[in-house]
Amino acid sequence: MKIGLFTEFSYPGKTEQQLYAEVLEQIALADQLGYDFFSITESFGKDLFSCSPFPLGLYVAAAQTARRIRFLTGIISMPIHHPAMLASQVAAADLLTNGRIMLGIGRGHPWVISRMNVNPAESAPRFEEGIRMLIELFKGDYVEKLDGKYWQVRDFKLSPPAVQQPHPPIYTAAATTPESAKFAGVVGQGLVQPGYLGIPFDLVRGLTETYRKNLPAGSKSDVVLGIHCHVAASREEAIENGALALSSQADVFLRGRLSRPVQTETIHTYATKSASREAFEKLCTLEKAKAAVAAEGPNVMAVWGTPDECIEKIEFYVNAMQPEQVMLNIASGSLDQAKTLKAMRLFAEKVLPHLH
Fold this sequence. Notes:
The chain has 356 residues and is of the alpha/beta class. The protein has a single domain, classed as TIM Barrel. It has 14 helices and twelve strands. The chain has helices at residues 16-33, 55-63, 83-96, 110-115, 123-138, 178-186, 201-213, 235-259, 265-272, 274-283, 286-296, 307-321, 337-350, 352-355; strands at residues 2-7, 37-40, 70-73, 76-77, 101-106, 143-147, 152-156, 170-173, 190-193, 223-231, 302-305, 325-329. The strands form two sheets. It has an eight-stranded parallel barrel, surrounded by eight helices. The protein has a two-stranded antiparallel ribbon with strand order 6-7. Strand 2, helix 2 (55-63) and strand 3 form a beta-alpha-beta unit. Helix 2 packs parallel to helix 3 (83-96). It is globular, with a radius of gyration of 19 Å.
C-alpha cells in the first residue's frame, strides 16, 4: 500500500512566501523519509483556503531536488480548464518530473469555479466531458476536430507526450457525491476520497463501494483514501495539534461556503453540499473538533495519537475499505512548520514501516 501526504495549502497567519518555502521543505523531507507521493490542491483567488493556483509548476520545481517521490494534483478543477491546454500542461510536467505526475481531477469547489464565471450547476457535465476529452487527447493521435458541448478542439496533436503512457494515472475526486464516484468507475480511472474533511465514515465507505461496482471488467481498483492525521509522542500532544490543524482548516472551508452567492435553487442544491457543510460546522473550533473526534470515534476520519494508536486506527480504515493508497492530511490549517515536520519524521520512523 502506498502512503502519501496532502496539504490544502491553507495559510492562516502566514505570508505566501513563507507558505511556499514551507511546502517545498515538506516535499523534500517527505522524499527523504520514504513517503510515496505528495498532494496539493488547486485554487484561484485570494482567500485563506489555499494559495495554490499552479500545483504542476510547484511540482516541477520540487522535483529538481526531490528525485523519487510522486506528485498528485489534489485536485484540479476540470470545469474551468480547456482539456487540450490541461493535457499539454500535465504532459509537460510529467516529462519534467520524469514520469511522476498523478492527475487528480474533480468538479472543484463552487466558490472557486464561480470566480471564473462558470455556473456551478454545470460542474458535473463539464467535469465528465472534460475527462473524456482528456483521455482521448492523451492518446497522442492527431485530432482534426473534436466537439463537445463546452469545449471544442481543432488541429491538435499532444506535444510533448507524457512519459507515462497512455497518460499519467487519473483520479476522480468524490467527497460526498455518489455520481462522481460512479463516473470514476465507469471510465475506469482511480478515485480520490478526501475523508480528512470530516466527511462521515459510512458515506466515504459507500462511495468506495459505488466506485468499485461500476468499474469495467478487467479494470483495477485504485482508491486514494484521505485521512486527517497527527502523530506525537503523547496522546495529549497529538490531540492538541491535530485539533488545531483540523479546526482551523474547517473554519476556512466553512467561511468559504457560507460567503459565496446563491443564484438559483439548482446552484444552492449543489453548492451547500450539506454533508460537508455539517462536518465543517462541527469541527470549526478547537473544542468542537476535540469533542467531535472523541464522541464519534472512527466516524470522523481523524487519526490523532501515539504511533501505536495511529497504526491501530489507520488499520481499521484500511481493513474496512481496502484502499490501494492512503493520503494523510498532516499539514493543515494553522499548525506551525516545526510541528508538521516533527510529525512527518515520527510517522515515517514508527508508523510507515507497518503500513508499507
